[in-house]
User: What shape does this take?
Amino acid sequence: MLAARFKRQQFWVAAALVISATGMAVSASSGPVIGFVAVCFAGIGFKAASSLFWPIPQAYLDARIAAAVLALVNSLGNLGGFFAPATFGYLEQKTGSIQGGLYALSGASLLAAVLVFLARTRPAAQDGGGTASGKSEAVVKHAA
Assistant: This one.
């Protein structure tokens, strides 16, 4: 994979989100044919960002908490399945067209791109199974 060859994988996720945001914005302000092509590009950007995102937290999280953190991220992401259509419908009712909702989706994608790009990452410490501070199992035995 091309993105795995570079150290800043966040850049590729942000680029995919910018592509999706551009597609949504263009679809809101163009005719039907160009709008359809723009929505296709937005879908490509969303799917690419999703597949590029998940390896990032796995590479930087400690193995002991990775499953719980990934479950939390997934659960919070699933809230978008409720709030995005509700917000889209609300904006459509208030503005009388779908352009407001498309621009809101575009803005949310740009915000996500900025947050992913600026996220501070550092590899998880690999200390052979000891605690995060480098102490071994002796600390656990002493506490018992």
Notes: Residues 8-120 form one domain. Residues 29 and 35 are 8 Å apart (CA to CA). The two ends are 47 Å apart (CA to CA). The chain is about 70% helix and 0% strand.
